[in-house]
Amino acid sequence: MLKCKHVVAKADALVDGAPMTRRERFALRLHLLMCHHCRRYIRQLRALLSTLPRETDALDDARTQEVLDRLNIPQDR
Fold first, then answer.
1. 33-64 pLDDT, tens digit each
2. What is the model's pLDDT at position 10?
3. Residue 35 CB-half CA count within 13 A
4. Within-domain flag for 23
5. What pLDDT score was predicted for residue 42?
6. For residue 28, how many other CB atoms are within 10 A of its CB?
7. How many domains does one find in the chain?
């Protein structure tokens, strides 16, 4: 059976749906069935990734300035 550190190392591949062997996927799923700490880690990783902007969701200059104004951070130009 996998250890938690192995699950953490493979977490990105699991969340992103990256290709992995059936054996790897089965071992990860089996560990997640038994380990609530790793389930929580995967759940938090998915939540974090869902809040981050994707590369295609670039902010325009007006939106960037609006965010910086709210944070009171001067923008270097």
1. 999 999 999 999 998 888 876 665 566 777 77
2. 92
3. 20
4. yes
5. 94
6. 20
7. 1
